[in-house]
Design goal:
Blueprint: E1 5-9, H1 13-26, E2 30-34, H2 40-47, E3 51-55, H3 63-72, E4 81-85, E5 94-96, E6 99-103, H4 108-121
């Protein structure tokens, strides 16, 4: 059984590590972290994730630019992207304008529920035996 793969892109290594631990240890996902926005597209191409968690406010390229690059790549265009940001409150998070948002600090249960839902919706969640 193959685990669903999650790519966490955030310029804060502590936060990306925390998200990775939650997703891997509690959720059972295969997780990779990328802390450099300019390397996010290459990492996504190599890793081929099932879901991408993407910070909005990063140096170099912001999350919107990275998301646009991902969506313009034919091999990654269908991968769900969830923006993880402190620019929206928990009350403002969710689906906004066709984009999925989680607010920082991220609620672990909401994080896991969101990723699980996306993996199931896009048929990327392995069936538990």
């Amino acid at each position: 059984m193959t685990k669903s793969k999650i790519l966490v892109v955030d310029d804060d290594p502590k936060l990306s590590s925390l998200l990775a631990v939650i997703l891997a240890r509690v959720g059972g996902y295969d997780v990779i972290q990328e802390n450099r926005s300019f390397a996010a597209l290459a990492t996504a191409r190599q890793y081929r994730p099932d879901v991408i968690l993407l910070d909005v406010d990063m140096p170099g390229k912001d999350g919107g630019m990275v998301s646009a690059e991902i969506k313009s790549d034919p091999n990654l265009a269908g991968v769900p992207v969830v923006f993880v940001t402190s620019l929206v409150s928990a009350a403002e998070a969710g689906n906004r304008g066709g984009e999925q948002y989680l607010s920082k600090p991220v609620d672990p249960k909401l994080l896991l529920d969101t990723v699980r839902s996306l993996c199931q919706r896009f048929k990327r969640e392995p069936q538990v035996a």
